[in-house]
Amino acid sequence: MKLKPLRTLPLRAAIKAERSIAHRELRRAASIPIDQGGWRPPQNMVGLRARVDPYPDLGHQLSTWVSGYLWAQDLGVPYFGGDVTKDSRGLFALSELTAALPSNRLLERRLPATGFETEPWALPALRHAVDRAARGRARPWIGRLSLDQRRWDQTPAAPALRRAVLAGYLGRELLTAESTSDHIAVHARRGDVGPTTHPDRWLGVPYYKKLIAEIRSIGRFERMPIRLYTSGDAGDLKELEQLGVQINDSGDRDHDFVAIASAQLIVAAPSSFGFFAALVSRAPVIARVPWWHRVPDSGRWFAYVPSSGLDTARLSRMLPVEGA
Q1: What is the DSSP string of 194-259?
Q2: Backbone phi, then psi, for 109, in 5-degree steps?
């Protein structure tokens, strides 16, 4: 869906207004008493939807969609998804993860914004909002989450997201790529992220040189091809070619996603796109922290702090023994 600037001025204004409302709602939500359990969703609540901002890129939209998916599980209600407009080709078959709407004429009620699920008041506040929306109503209705509803830990959705990609139009390609994979994938965020505009998310050549040297110290990865993927201008990264890094900065977005997700090792940038490729993958993932979402430091995940370095011993232990 292509949004024309002049025709979408009312939509942009509505989105800006809802963000402002959400900030006020978060302050009020924190003061709601915490319940002690035993809550059940109202009988007339049919399920939950997410409101996805139509303007950001795919990664941001998926993050909002997953937030709704996980909040619906917390509430114990069916999830009806949201409009992920930047996935027009169906990289993710998200309908595989949602319930079917019983009717298109159901009343939709917006639920006030709440906090991250890690905050003890967040779920009680959302339950309180659901109870208020249901009060005095006999007709079935759908709850609609606030625009860009927060969710800190999105890793619990990883198995479901993998199912959605395998059911999508490149699912077979992912399986084939995984079976023949022989590369390390590095995702670098460029384009809309720069050293002055987003210094907290900008990773320069020194960062990648250090991390690549640590990865190369592991026997299995000593000579494995490294492919760097980015959708922006990679001019500042050309120096990495001297280390044998192949830079891919003009590929198709969806096929780049599959190439990252199918790698033997993933180096994820502070970017939703690379993070979702890592969620879908089964390979070890190195991701710099801190970031907007939780990056585990266990299992196949390595929360990377440059000053502390890569835990190469743990990474080596989790790799399959060659020839076994």
Answers
A1: -TTT-TTT---HHHHHHHHHHHHTSGGGSS--EEEE-SS--GGGGGGGGGTEEEE-SS-HHHHHHH
A2: -115, 125
CA distances 169 to 16, 91, 109, Å, are 34, 6, 33
Paired residues of 185 in beta bridges: 227, 266
**Other Cβ atoms closer than 10 A to 164:** 24
Determine the pLDDT at residue 36.
56
Q: 95 and 79 in contact (C-beta within 8 Å)?
A: no
Instruction: Name the pTM for this structure.
Output: 0.89
Q: What is the mean pLDDT of the chain?
A: 89
- Residue 278: CB atoms within 10 Å: 27
- Closest to 267 in 3D by CA, of 254, 253, 281: 281
Tell me, what's the pLDDT at 193? 61
- Least confident segment among 133-137, 159-163, 183-187, 254-258: 133-137
Q: Which amino acid is at 139?
A: R
pLDDT at site 324: 47
The DSSP string of 77-91 is --B-----TT-TT-S
